[in-house]
Write a structure and sequence with these properties.
Strand content: 15-25%
CATH class of the largest domain: Alpha Beta
Low-confidence stretches: 624-635, 701-717
Number of domains: 4
CATH architecture of the largest domain: 2-Layer Sandwich
Distance between the termini: 110 Å
Mean pLDDT: 86
Number of strands: 26
Number of helices: 23
CATH topology of the largest domain: Nucleotidyltransferase, domain 5
Oligomer: single chain
Structural class: alpha/beta
Radius of gyration: 33 Å
Length: 717
C-alpha cells in the first residue's frame, strides 16, 4: 500500500513537471516571431521617394481622391521641415484632413528611417494621445503596411493586444537592408503608454524609433530617450478656449511653443517644428504663428476653403435665407418645417449655373453626397457645403474656421465686439440649467407686433453683490397670435395674451439647479415703448415681478434721445443706477432706462475674458466637428452656434470717431434685428434693480503683512 502511494506521488510530481516544461516550451515558441521579407521591395522603395504616392497607396481609404494643390503644399511643407529642419506653421480649413495628413506623413518618414524621434503635441495630453492612437491603429490594422513593412508590423501584430509581450519577444529572419539572415534577438520595444518605441529588428530603418506625446497644457522640457533628442515636433491645433479668450493664457502658450518646444533639440541640430491648425480668432496663438509678419521664421501659410467669390452673391443670399427659414420656422407641434434645407437645395439646383459662376473652391470633393429622405443628395458641390455652413454658423465663423481669415476684432472706430466672439463664449451648462452659485434670475422682454423676444439670465455675485459671472440660460420667441397686417384691431389683447402665455410658461416649467431646486425669476422688465397702455395693463395683472420699462438714449429703438435721471427721491421719481422709476398719471411705476449705458455694459460683459470677473456666457457647448458621428442637421439649437442671438447682440455697436479734433461717441446700427439686445440689456437693468452692483468683483488679492508700514506711515516718517 505504501509503495503504491509513493508511486502515485511520484507520478503526480512528474506530470506537473512535464506540464511546466510543456508550457515553458510553448511560451518560448510564442516568444519567437519570424519576420518575413518585404513583399514588394521595389514598390516600397519607389513609393518612399514621393510622399503623395506613398500616402495614396498605403492609405487609400483615407485619401481616396487626388490631393488638391493645397494638400500637396501641406505635404511638401511637412516633408521639408522634417528633412531640412526649421519651423513651419500651416492653417488649414476646418475638416480638411490636416491632422491625418500630418500623422500619416510623419509615419512614412519614421518607417523610412528619416525620423528616429518624433513628438506629437496638442492642446491637451489626451488630444495628443489620440494622434498616437491613430498611428498605432494604422500599424496594427493596415494589410498593405504589413506586407511591405513586416519588420515593424509583424512584431506588433504578434502582441495580439497584449503589450506586455513586447518585453520578452524575440525576432528572427532576414534583414531588410541587405537580405542576410540574423539570429534570434530581442525586439525590445514598447507599445503602450504615451511614448512608444518601434521594434528593434536588425536591418530595419525604423528600429528603436520613438513616438512620444505631450500636451501643451503641461511641462514639455527635457525629453530625452536613449540619449536621443527629438528630430521633429508636430503641433496640432494648439489653441484652447482659455487661450483664445484670455491674452494672458495666450502669452503662456506662445512662450511654451517658442521656448519649451524649441529647447527639445540637441546640441548639433535644432528640432523641426510643424504646426497644423485652424484659426479661431484674429488674436489667437495660431494666428500669430501663421502670420509671416509676426513670426517670419515659421514661414506661415493660411489656406482657404473658398478661393474666389461667386459672381452672383444675391442668389446665395436668397439660398441662405431659405435654408435658415426652413430650419427656424416650426409647425404647430414645434418641429422645423425643413430641417434638412431641401427647399434651398431645390433652389440651388434650379439656378446651378449662375450660382456657380465665378466661384472657386480649394477642394471640390468636400460635400455630403449622402441621400436625404426624399431621395435627393444632401449636397451636390463643395460650394453648396460652404454656404450651408454660412447659413448655420454665420459668415464670421466660416471666414475664421474655413477660410482662416477671421474678422478684425480691434477696429479702431468700433468696440471690437463680434458675433463670432459671442458664439464662442459658452458655459457648458445645459439650456435652462442654473449654474452653481447663482441665486438670482431676471428676464428682459422686447415687444413686437408678431413676436416677443425674451432673455433669461442667472447672476453669480459675491457678498457685496458685485458681479462674478453672468449666464444667459435661456432665450426665445413667443409668437403673438390674432394680429392682422395693416390694422391694429385686437392688437392690445393679442399682446396681453402672448405675455400671459410667457408668464404661464415659466411658472409651469420653472428654472432649476442641477439638484432640482427651483429658482424663480425675481424680476421681468417688459418693453413699454410701443403699445404702452397695453403693457401697463398686463403688468398690473401680472404683479410686481413684472414691470413696464422704457429706454432713453441715442441708440436704436429708444423712446427719447436723452436720459435725464432725477437727482433726488420724490413722490413721482425714484433714482437708481442709470435707471429711475417714474410714476405715471394712472399710478403705474415705469422703469426708465439709460439705453446707451446699458447696451455698452451688455457688450462689455461679452468682451470680458471668461476667466475674469464680470464675463457673460451662453448655455450649451461647442460641438465636436471632428466626431465621425457629427451631423450638422441633427444639432440642437444651442449647438448651432447661437447664430441668431449673437447677430442680434451685435446689431448695434458703439463707435468712437475724432471729428474736428474732438472725440465723438455714438451708436451705429448694423441691422434692424436687435430684439435680443434690447431684451438682454433689460435683464441687466432688472438685475440692478434687484441689488446687483454693476462694478465687477475684483480678483482676490493677498493681504499685506500686518507689520508692514503703510504708504501713509512711510510718508509721515
Amino acid at each position: 500500500m505504501r509503495a503504491r502511494s509513493e508511486q502515485k506521488k511520484y507520478n503526480a510530481v512528474s506530470e506537473r513537471q512535464r506540464d511546466v516544461e510543456r508550457k515553458r516550451r510553448t511560451r518560448s515558441a510564442s516568444r519567437v516571431v519570424t519576420i518575413p521579407p518585404c513583399a514588394h521591395p521595389t514598390l516600397r522603395a519607389e513609393l518612399e521617394q514621393d510622399d503623395c504616392d506613398w500616402l495614396r497607396w498605403y492609405f487609400g481609404d483615407l485619401f481616396w481622391y487626388d490631393f488638391t494643390l493645397q494638400q500637396r503644399a501641406m505635404i511638401a511643407a511637412i516633408r521639408d521641415a522634417i528633412r531640412f529642419g526649421g519651423d513651419q506653421a500651416l492653417a488649414a480649413s476646418r475638416g480638411e484632413g490636416k491632422t491625418k495628413i500630418f500623422e500619416r506623413t510623419l509615419l512614412k518618414h519614421i518607417l523610412a528611417g528619416t525620423v528616429s524621434f518624433a513628438v506629437l503635441c496638442a492642446a491637451t495630453g489626451p488630444a495628443a494621445q489620440d494622434s498616437l492612437a491613430s498611428i498605432k491603429d494604422a500599424l496594427e490594422t493596415s494589410d498593405k503596411l504589413l506586407a511591405d513593412y513586416p519588420e515593424v508590423c509583424v512584431p506588433i501584430r504578434a502582441l495580439e493586444n497584449t503589450p506586455n509581450r513586447a518585453h520578452y519577444q524575440v525576432v528572427k529572419g532576414k534583414r531588410h537592408d541587405n537580405g542576410k539572415a540574423f539570429a534570434a534577438t530581442p525586439s525590445r520595444f514598447v507599445w503602450c503608454g504615451r511614448e512608444v518605441t518601434l521594434p528593434r529588428v536588425p536591418g530595419s530603418p525604423s528600429a528603436g524609433a520613438v513616438i512620444a506625446t505631450r500636451g501643451l497644457d503641461a511641462a514639455i522640457r527635457g525629453l530625452n530617450k536613449f540619449n536621443r533628442r527629438p528630430d521633429v515636433v508636430g503641433i496640432d491645433d494648439p489653441d484652447t478656449e482659455e487661450s483664445v479668450a484670455s491674452d494672458e493664457q495666450a502669452d503662456k502658450l506662445e512662450k511654451r511653443i517658442d521656448r519649451g518646444i524649441a529647447g527639445l533639440g540637441g546640441q548639433q541640430r535644432s528640432v523641426a517644428r510643424v504646426m497644423l491648425t485652424t484659426l479661431q480668432r484674429v488674436r489667437c496663438v495660431s494666428a500669430k504663428f501663421t502670420d509671416p509678419k509676426q513670426k517670419p521664421t515659421w514661414k506661415g501659410r493660411r489656406f482657404r476653403f473658398l478661393l474666389k467669390q461667386p459672381a452672383h452673391p444675391d442668389l446665395w443670399e436668397e439660398y441662405m435665407s431659405q435654408r435658415r427659414s426652413g430650419m427656424e420656422e416650426t409647425d404647430s407641434e414645434g418641429n422645423a418645417i425643413d430641417p434638412l434645407g431641401r427647399r434651398a437645395h431645390a433652389y440651388y439646383l434650379a439656378n446651378l449655373a449662375p450660382m456657380n459662376e465665378g466661384a472657386e473652391v480649394a477642394n471640390s470633393n468636400r460635400f455630403n453626397a449622402e441621400l436625404a429622405p426624399d431621395g435627393s443628395q444632401m449636397e451636390v458641390s463643395a460650394l453648396e457645403r460652404y454656404y450651408n455652413e454660412v447659413a448655420r454658423i454665420g459668415q464670421e465663423a466660416v471666414s475664421t474656421e474655413y477660410d482662416n481669415d477671421p474678422p478684425d476684432e480691434a477696429e479702431p472706430e468700433e468696440s471690437g465686439i463680434t458675433a463670432h466672439r459671442i458664439q464662442k463664449q459658452v458655459s457648458g451648462h445645459a439650456r435652462k440649467e442654473i449654474p452653481p452659485g447663482c441665486a438670482m434670475l431676471t428676464m428682459g422682454l422686447d415687444v413686437r407686433k408678431v413676436a416677443l423676444h425674451w432673455v433669461v439670465r442667472a447672476w453669480d455675485v459675491d457678498n457685496a453683490r458685485r458681479l462674478l459671472k453672468a449666464y444667459t440660460i435661456d432665450y426665445g420667441v413667443t409668437e403673438v397670435y390674432g394680429t392682422e397686417v395693416g390694422t391694429d384691431e385686437g392688437l392690445d389683447n393679442a399682446l396681453i395674451r402672448a405675455l400671459h402665455a410667457r408668464r404661464y410658461a415659466i411658472e409651469s416649467e420653472p428654472y432649476c439647479r442641477s439638484d432640482g431646486s427651483v429658482v424663480p425669476v425675481q424680476l421681468t422688465l417688459v418693453d413699454a415703448g410701443w403699445r404702452t397702455e397695453a403693457i401697463y395693463r398686463f403688468c398690473a395683472e401680472a404683479g410686481l415681478a413684472w414691470r413696464p420699462a422704457m429706454g432713453f438714449g441715442k441708440s436704436a429703438g429708444c423712446a427719447q434721445a436723452n436720459f435725464n435721471a432725477p437727482a433726488t427721491v420724490s413722490d413721482t421719481k425714484k433714482p437708481g443706477d442709470r435707471w429711475f422709476l417714474s410714476r405715471r398719471p394712472n399710478g403705474t411705476w415705469l422703469v426708465c432706462m439709460d439705453s446707451d449705458h446699458w447696451k455698452a455694459w451688455e457688450h462689455d460683459r461679452w468682451m470680458t475674458s471668461p476667466d475674469k470677473p464680470g464675463s457673460m456666457a451662453l448655455f450649451g457647448s461647442e460641438p465636436d466637428r471632428m466626431d465621425p458621428h457629427y451631423r450638422p442637421d441633427r444639432l440642437s439649437s444651442d449647438q448651432k452656434g447661437h447664430f441668431s442671438y449673437a447677430k442680434h447682440i451685435t446689431a448695434e455697436v458703439e463707435v468712437e470717431e475724432v471729428v474736428k479734433g474732438r472725440l465723438k461717441r455714438y451708436w451705429k446700427s448694423k441691422n434692424d434685428n436687435n430684439h435680443y439686445l434690447d431684451a438682454s440689456y433689460m435683464s441687466d437693468v432688472a438685475a440692478s434693480m434687484c441689488g446687483l452692483v454693476t462694478l465687477v468683483a475684483p480678483p482676490k488679492q493677498r493681504k499685506p503683512p500686518q507689520d508692514r508700514p503703510s504708504a501713509a506711515q512711510l510718508a509721515a516718517r
